[in-house]
């Protein structure tokens, strides 16, 4: 059974059959799609991916890469348990599947790992889920012969698609939200140093304090990882500090949820004793008690946009065109902040 055989049985062109198999069905009627798919199912037709790859110089494979720190990689840390990562990758895979592409998922801890991936696997493009250093990206872009999409990078290259959230504005908004609810003793929880994205968010926190003439207090910085476990430690530390802190802003919803639990274990009530705002506005914000107020950067939309821009770059083959987008952020109000007025 070949494409030509299916086309003759369906009374259509081989191009129409190919489009249906590859998910490019916008110009194919539902009746024709059903007829072609019925023949494919009846004869158990399976496309020969190797032959397809050789014939059109395309593997229809997109590499999706997450960067781990070496200590995390060595410890066997499962990054895919992180709800931000799972939301990102789930959205990317869905969009790729809709467009007839396959997803190859890989975690790396060193720039040499991703260079090996580029050289040894025939991928049509790559999506980097977490930002990496400009130095690593420069090495990667020099070695890659395919377009690459990244999130929140500060590196620019003609073949790099960069989708950025306004991270400084995000923490500025959450800190101002606390201030507008009467809070002036506001803590920041995240070990931001050395991290591009978290540093931008920390700068937003400081700017909001400055604009409201509230002094910055270094002792109100709780440098714990923005994870659930790091949040528990931060929440315990805040509750045990005996300081006048009434509110805390952080850089991830999962960390904020940990802070709520850590504060509770330390004898605090959220939001009565401690108001908390998360970041990302993931679905799990609706399942906490109280429901978590958060900064929305619309993670699914961010993932879809990067995937769409990457596929556009692949199809248009405009190697000298620089694609990117800056996405806005907003506060989603729920129940984890109390007004002191």
TrEMBL record:
Q: Which SUPFAM superfamilies match?
A: lambda repressor-like DNA-binding domains, Periplasmic binding protein-like I
Superkingdom classification of source: Bacteria
Ranges of residues in domain HTH cro/C1-type? 1-32
Q: Does the keyword DNA-binding apply?
A: yes
Respond yes or no to whether keyword DNA-binding is given for this record.
Answer: yes
Q: Which residues form the HTH lacI-type domain?
A: 1-56
Task: Tell me the Pfam families matching this sequence.
Answer: LacI (PF00356), Peripla_BP_3 (PF13377)
Keywords in alphabetical order, please.
Answer: DNA-binding, Transcription, Transcription regulation
Give a GO molecular function annotation for the protein. DNA-binding transcription factor activity
The record's InterPro entries line, in alphabetical order, gives: Cro/C1-type_HTH, HTH_LacI, LacI/GalR-like_sensor, Lambda_DNA-bd_dom_sf, Peripla_BP_I
- The protein's name is LacI family transcriptional regulator
According to the entry, what is the taxonomic lineage of the organism?
Bacteria, Bacillati, Bacillota, Clostridia, Lachnospirales
